[in-house]
Specification:
This protein has 166 residues and is mainly α. The protein has 7 helices and no strands.
Length: 166
């Protein structure tokens, strides 16, 4: 069975790629998601969970920005220029994974007050929560399409004869 570049990345160099590209970003994002519920429910402005939420948000945004830059340079751009994509599911999986930089980066910028520094507390809460929700959606789309045979959505000759990409 063919494998998307997303799954190949996670499967290679075990356990390091899995830890660096999946576990660490997801643990930070899930920490934000879980603590976000407390922050929203209580409209909290301070305390240990608010501090944990903010720290995980900033760390996740900064870390994933580094992942984004690294994977764009070493994978996405070379695959695009070299015609190495294995099918639509491959492009969708990698594209959605990389798009996680937008909500994660926005959360970090909101918590650093670079975005919305003058906003009222409520507005920052809602934008932050929206970014959490957006990240969860894009991450799950990436995972779902990443687990597909990359040629499954392809109707061209590569779908029937296999496709070996670099």
């Amino acid at each position: 069975m063919n494998m998307t570049h997303y799954m190949q990345l996670l499967a290679e160099n075990q356990p390091w790629n899995l830890l660096l590209f999946m576990v660490l970003p997801v643990v930070l994002a899930e920490t934000v998601a879980v603590t976000e519920l407390f922050v929203l429910f209580h409209r909290a402005r301070e305390g240990a969970l608010v501090a944990l939420n903010r720290a995980a948000s900033i760390a996740g945004g900064v870390y994933f920005t580094g992942v984004f830059v690294y994977l764009m340079k070493t994978a996405a751009i070379p695959l695009t220029l070299g015609g190495g994509w294995r099918g639509p599911a491959d492009v969708i999986a990698v594209g959605f994974y990389l798009s996680g930089v937008l909500p994660l980066g926005a959360m970090a910028l909101i918590d650093l007050r670079i975005i919305g520094g003058a906003w009222p507390h409520e507005k920052r809460l809602w934008w932050h929560a929206g970014c959490v929700a957006t990240f969860l959606v894009v991450a799950h789309v990436a995972m779902i399409f990443g687990m597909l045979d990359p040629t499954l959505l392809w109707s061209g000759p590569a779908a029937h004869g296999g496709h070996d990409a670099p």
